[in-house]
Amino acid sequence: MPASEGSRVAVILFGAPGSGKGTQAKVLQKCTGFAHISTGDILRGHVAAGDAVGGEAQALMEAGRLVSDELVNGLVRERLQRPDCAAGFILDGYPRTVRQAEVLNQLLSSLKVASVVVHLSVDYNRIIVRLASRRQCPRCGAVYNLDSRPPKVGGICDLDGEPLVARDDDREDLIRRRLEAYEQETKPLVDYLARSGPVYKEVNGNRDSPEEVAEEICRLVGVG
Question: What class has domain 8-220?
Answer without folding.
Answer: alpha beta
